[in-house]
Design brief:
Layout lengths: L1 H24 L19 E10 L8 H13 L4 E10 L1 H13 L6 E5 L3 H6 L7 H7 L7 H5 L2 E2 L2 E2 L2 E6 L2 E5 H6 L10 H15 L5 E3 L1 E2 L4 H11 L5 E7 L3 E6 L4 H15 L4 E2 L6 H4 L3 E6 L10 H10 E4 L13 E2 L1 E6 L7 H11 L2 H11 L2 E2 L2 H4 L5 H6 L3 H6 L4 E2 L7 H18 L3 H15 L4
Helix pairs in contact: 2-13, 9-10, 18-19
């Protein structure tokens, strides 16, 4: 079975690579000028919507969402010939491409935003306020509250959170059995560290690490849940800002933050090796680690109920991050993508209509299942449209159960810099054995300066 999982994943990656090369070879043509462009030999009005989208690791995947939505949009406007021209970019290029394009006042009708970018784009008035649209639409209650709120800046809606992810504890059942480790011991901080020691003593001589500890560029995302479950926050509002009156101030270096960082240090002190390189769960599926905290569901090539069952027989999942004590409420970080309409759009009403259609459960649902993304809408998560994802996505109900305990990162413009300071604090603890409080205080001081307090 392990070989089968690797072969399936290898074949899937190869196929995706071929498609990506094909799409990129015709990059300037994009979607609107081939498959979804229709003949306009009549005298109907012609409208071409333009979009800039993050490529989701596979530029071709957008076809399966935009295509059906565009067909439905056209059906509602028989008097208009509607086409779409969209361009996709890798994650590390998307933000700058969006900023430069919109700052140059180039008309774009639709974009995808990482939730943490939203505040910057809204503050710079690069995206439209969608509040009036959403009030008329009336679907706010269909969203999980944390996801709907993630599209707001100063209580106005600037983006609709389309899908998300959560992270939890994945483990190989046979490897834990071999080391005589009870999976339930992974639920608490003390039990997690004790299990890691036991796993390492049995598995490390065989080239298998007991527990994966993220030390890569996104390490803050794996630390924040420990901060949140203790009642701490990344930032908090404070009065007395030199220019803004009330503004955000670093809070991650308080007692909760120090305690959360100490848990990271305790893992290193127990012999768990931090991992600078990250492969988003591939390393776990290759059985290089017995336990990993990750959003692994995106990387499991499963398309049938039988293959899901076979996977679940071998791999276990605990829907939580380890907690200090059993009576603590767990937490997780939620990522994901929002649809927004740039201020430069010349077709805002049509762009909004296209967004609402893409978000219809019967159109969005199959897309989410195909890529194992988690929904932000309740009726896809646990309502009438949840049947298919429950059938094929491993531990789907457990994953959905984590959404209410999920948190979002700040979406203010300074956040990316703050996250880098937190990462530097984590690096100093992970790789230099630094004092947790001193490391966090240094990061907070640098963050306060960026936020304009110093």
């Amino acid at each position: 079975m392990y070989v089968t999982i690797r072969l399936l994943r290898s074949a899937l990656i190869t196929a995706i690579g071929v498609l990506a090369v094909s799409i990129l070879a015709n990059y300037s043509l994009s979607f609107g000028s081939n498959l979804q462009q229709i003949d306009n030999s009549s005298n109907k009005e012609n409208v071409t919507l333009s979009a800039i989208l993050e490529d989701q690791g596979d530029p071709a995947r957008w076809n399966s969402l935009i295509g059906p939505a565009l067909d439905r949009l056209r059906e509602g406007h028989p008097d208009i010939t509607i086409n779409i021209d969209y361009r996709t970019f890798p994650y590390n290029e998307t933000r700058e491409k969006l900023l430069s394009t919109l700052s140059d006042h180039i008309p774009i009708d639709l974009i995808t935003l990482d939730q943490i970018w939203l505040g910057e784009f809204a503050e710079d008035r690069l995206i439209a306020d969608l509040t009036n649209y959403t009030q008329t639409w009336g679907r706010q209650k269909d969203w999980y509250e944390v996801n709907w709120d993630g599209g707001a800046v100063d209580k106005n809606i600037y983006g609709i959170w389309a899908w998300t992810d959560v992270r939890g504890i994945w483990y190989w059942k046979d490897l834990l059995d071999e080391a005589s480790v009870d999976p339930n011991s992974l639920k608490t901080w003390d039990g997690y560290i004790a299990a890691a020691k036991q796993l390492n003593s049995v598995l490390r001589p065989k080239g298998i690490e007991g527990v994966h500890l993220t030390g890569a560029g996104h390490s803050p995302d794996l630390w924040y849940p420990y901060l949140w479950m203790l009642g701490g926050n990344i930032l908090q509002e404070r009065e007395g800002h030199p220019t803004k009156g009330t503004y955000w101030f670093p809070a991650f270096n308080n007692s909760e933050g120090v305690r959360a960082m100490k848990f990271i240090k305790d893992q290193v002190d127990a012999g768990i090796k931090p991992q600078k390189n990250h492969f988003w769960g591939e390393e776990f599926l290759d059985r290089k680690f017995a336990v990993m905290i990750e959003a692994l569901q995106h990387h499991i090539p499963i398309t049938t109920a039988d293959s899901r069952t076979a996977f679940e027989e071998r791999v276990g999942f605990i829907p939580m991050f380890p907690v200090p004590h059993e009576d603590n409420q767990t937490s997780t970080l939620m990522g994901g993508w929002l649809f927004s309409i740039p201020s430069t759009s010349t077709h805002k009403d049509l762009a909004w209509e296209l967004i609402t259609i893409m978000l219809e459960p019967d159109i969005l649902g199959p897309y989410l299942v195909n890529h194992a993304n988690l929904p932000t809408q309740i009726q896809i998560g646990e309502g009438p449209f949840s049947e298919e994802p429950m059938r094929v996505i491993p531990y789907y109900n457990d994953l959905i159960s984590m959404i209410p305990s999920g948190h979002e990162r700040p979406n203010i413009r300074e956040y990316p810099q703050i996250a880098e300071f937190v990462k530097e604090a984590l690096d100093s603890v992970l790789y230099k054995g630094a004092d947790p409080k001193r490391s966090l205080d240094d990061a907070a001081s640098a963050s306060a300066k960026v936020l304009g307090w110093l």
